[in-house]
């Protein structure tokens, strides 16, 4: 228990103690006897060595003045009144002091004292669970932008990255969002789209550059070049991959091909390209783990609610990091020029191999 809590509790007890004395003695006459006893009376008067006093019910009583120390008015207007009242009340065990002498009072007091650390202990236990429960509540409200089946492939990719943007700014399903094409052109003749979302009353905006690559190459997959934080190559397979296990097997197979072609640079699909941009996923598996492709793949299996954020329409998309190679315009030209004879496993550019690109 912190010192400030102890001080606050002590002040409250003192206030309650003083209030009890005042309430129990207010607007009365107090006859303080030599024995320490205090007699509360409505009226008092002294006649020939005898103190007469009247109780609230009108009964009349007497006491010899030799047995009386002092008769005071309980208006608590001076320190002397307080001193007389407290000293006699303590000696007689009356009023609040009588309550304090009862074992039930101390039992309640000790119980209240024990309740404070107990309550703090319970709060500590639940506070350790709170992040998990809050994380669960947050994940249940993770926004998911619907991608219409009739949308074009370009629109599907734009909507996919719109969803990533909303997840990055921690938008909820109740928040307003929109996107629109701009009249600007990005690198390599890409189109620029603007995302807007209103979160906690504030509008936030973001842009993405997107363009098709390999459109006339005869490749079965549909591929896009995107600039969103980093430079991506996004691949949509000709047949949607809807099973997460098959999806992960394909990624690991491409990684094995890249390992065999090492030390040559390869573009291989990585789920970490997307998942480490989703704060809820990073928080769930831990920030260091989110940078590891293997940890992200394992996280997809353990936390199935994040699997949908890798889907572009009906099936999973494949995402490759193009950050180190975006300036190699010749590579994109190779992608455009690649024909059916390039095979199903890889496409070779002058300095880079696109694994599983077709």
Largest beta sheet, briefly? 6 strands, antiparallel
Uncertain stretches of 5 or more adjacent residues:
129-135, 326-352
Question: What structural class do the secondary elements suggest?
Answer: alpha+beta
Shape type: rod-shaped
The rounded distance between the terminal residues' Cα atoms is 66 Å
Count helical runs: 11
Helix content range: 40-55%
Quantity of strands, as a count: 17
Look at the structure and give the mean pLDDT.
76
Cross-sheet strand order for the largest sheet: 7-8-9-10-11-15
What would the keywords be for this entry?
11 helices, 6-stranded antiparallel beta sheet, alpha+beta, SH3 type barrels, 3-stranded antiparallel beta sheet, 358 residues
Descriptive overview:
The structure is a single chain. By secondary structure, this protein is an alpha+beta fold. The chain folds into 2 domains: 3-101, SH3 type barrels (Roll), CATH 2.30.30; 153-355, no CATH class. It has 11 helices and 17 strands. The protein has helices at 3-25, 79-92, 95-100, 103-140, 153-168, 244-261, 272-275, 279-285, 287-290, 293-302, 329-337, and strands at 29-33, 38-41, 43-47, 50-54, 60-64, 68-73, 176-185, 191-199, 202-213, 222-228, 230-236, 266-267, 311-312, 315-316, 318-321, 346-348, 353-355. Strands 7-8-9-10-11-15 form a 6-stranded antiparallel beta sheet. Strands 2-1-6 form a 3-stranded antiparallel beta sheet, covered by helices on one side. A hairpin with a 1-residue loop joins strand 10 and strand 11 (230-236). The protein is rod-shaped. Residues 129-135 and 326-352 have low confidence and may be disordered.
